[in-house]
Each structure stands twice: as structure tokens, then as C-alpha cells.
Amino acid sequence: MADLTLSAVQKSYGDVQVIHGIDMQIQSGEFCVFVGPSGCGKSTLLRMIAGLEEVTSGTVGIDGQVVNTVPAAQRGLAMVFQSYALYPHMSVRQNLSFGLENLSKPREEIRRRVDEAARMLQITELMDRRPAALSGGQRQRIAIGRAVVREPKIFLFDEPLSNLDAELRVAMRTEISELHGRLGNTMIYVTHDQVEAMTMADKIAVLRKGVVEQFGRPLDLFNHPANRFVAGFIGSPSMNFVAGRVDGDALDLDCGARLALPAGRFDAPQDTRIEMGIRACHMNVSADGPLAMTVRSVEQLGTESYVYGALDNEAPMTLHQPGQVSINAGERISLTPQFDQLHLFNAQTGATLRMG
């Protein structure tokens, strides 16, 4: 196990800067997920940690040692790629053994590590097959096994489940989480899927345009987003947003509704343009609710329901209800937000408006 420290890390390709001075401390044994939209820099950051990309400025430290100039093979890390990167002409056992053989490890140690990884990942019966004879999930297990046998200080995962179907992704993320529990190693995992991030991580770094927008525990990001971007990115379905302005102790929303604010809840000057955020699960259907929504579609999933529609100013709105609902497309319904679950964001900067 090892801790990882990023200090003012920047990355540029010529005149184009893609990583903008990232500072981060990942403790030994933590499962940290880098999440963000495509092109935000999460894979580039991972490759700099791995030593596959040079750091333009700043430092990458592993267990207190700066490793900027240390070759990738000597950093004590192991990386699992999206493409699996298996050798098609080799058996599973040969794929697992190959890296250790290149390191000139003793034959008995190689056998021990490979057999132990095979048992852990439940791939013992696959050892004589070649990758072409394996399913996508089996190939991913082999790719993970190849990292496990190296007994690295830190595991690096670069979107390892994106090539799998939805059901298999759920099963594999459970297996990776269980693997972390058994090994206890530091793991850094890149994904664009915020559900993967929420369900697997001890800590999440939300990136946008090469900047860490927020770094912390999953529920802290969900309950206390630092800005509108994090609020909209973390959580499924995405948070609902309604534009408006502050009017004394109330919000005048662009949809025509007026909401009285709990006394002292938000620190915002008079007439500040804001966006009010409320999650789909934090609204109730009521006869005289302040928000009027025209229903466009309803998803009945049996144990839960999602109602999609729009407010009078066409702002999209999603409602989540447990169980089954008697709501149909075309209806108008009234909604009351749970006021202790409201979020306000400065419309110009996107920053969260804190309690005054």
C-alpha cells in the first residue's frame, strides 16, 4: 500500500494546457475515483501518475518520494486498461505470468502469484484458454489478474468497464470493490459514470476542463456540492434547476412561482440572480404546491417511478417517487420541494450559496 500526493500538477501539449495545477492527497488504502465528462483530463492525470505521460510542472509523490523522473516500470504501480490489452496468442496463464517473467522473478514465485490471483478472481478453470475464447467479463478479470500478480503499491484503472454491457458492469464493479476490500491496496479509478463513482469510491475527485471542482467523500459531494456543476453531475437522475432571483426572504422563480426561504438559510444579497437546485427525490406531489409541472412521460419501474415534465417556463423537471404512481402524460401536477433540501447557486459564478 502507498499514499499518493499531487502538488500543483500541470500538463500542457504545446500551447494547450489540459491540467491546471491539481493538488490532491490520496491516503494509503483509499479507493479514489476520478470522474467527469469526456475531455476533462481524468485519463491524462492517471497516465501522469502511472508515468506514461510527463508532468509539465508540479510533482507526483508516492510514499513521500517524488517520482516525476522515475520510469513507469519502476514506480511500483499496475494499470488496468479499457481495452484489456491481453496478448491474443498467449493462454490466460501466460498472460498472467508474462510481466513477472520480464522482471526475472523466480519460477516458483510466479506460479504462486498466478495461482493465488486465479483463485481470488475465480478464473482457475480458464487458465489454458486464449483471450478469443473468453467473454468480455472474463477478459476483464484476466486484465485485473495481470495487475494483481505484480503486487503493486497502487492499482490504476482507466475506465475498465466501459466495454461491458450494463448488467455485467454492475457485477464487475462489485467484484472490484470486493477485491479492494481483500487486498487493501490504494486504488485510483477513472470513469465518466458517476454511478460507478458513487458506489465504489472512498473519495471522489470531480474534474472539469483540467480542474478538480470538488474532492471528498461521495455523500459529501451529493449532499453539499461545491458548485452547480458538481450538483448537476453527481446524483442520478441529475438535480433539477430553476432560475430566479432573491427577493428578501423569498425566491422569485422564472417559472412564476414564489418560494419563501427558511430564515437565515442562504447568504445572498437582494436581487441576486440564482439557480435553485432540488433533487428528484426531494419533492412531494401536493394539491397546492408552489411548482406547477406539466407531465410529459412516466416511467413505472414497479418499486419506483420517475415522472418527467416541465415547469411553465419550460424548465425540465424530474420527480422520483417510491412505488407506483397514478400520474399520466399530459396531466398538470403541483409539487412542493423539501425546503431543507434546497440548494442555491450564484447564476453568474455557479458557486454554492451557503447558509448566512
Which tags fit this structure?
globular, 8 helices, 2 domains, Rossmann fold, OB fold (Dihydrolipoamide Acetyltransferase, E2P), five-stranded antiparallel sheet
Query: What gyration radius follows from the Cα positions, in whole Å?
Result: 24 Å
What is the overall shape? globular
Query: Structural class given helices, strands, pairing?
Result: alpha+beta
Q: Compute the separation of the termini in Å.
A: 42 Å
What is the makeup of the main sheet? Answer: 6 strands, mixed
Which architecture name of the largest domain does CATH use? 3-Layer(aba) Sandwich
- Write the element-wise H/E pattern from the N-terminal end onward: EEEHEEEHHHEHEHEEHHEEEEEEEEEE
The proportion of residues forming helix, as a percent range, comes to 10-25%
Strand % is 25-35%
- Overall mean confidence score, pLDDT: 93
Relevant CATH superfamily of the largest domain: P-loop containing nucleotide triphosphate hydrolases
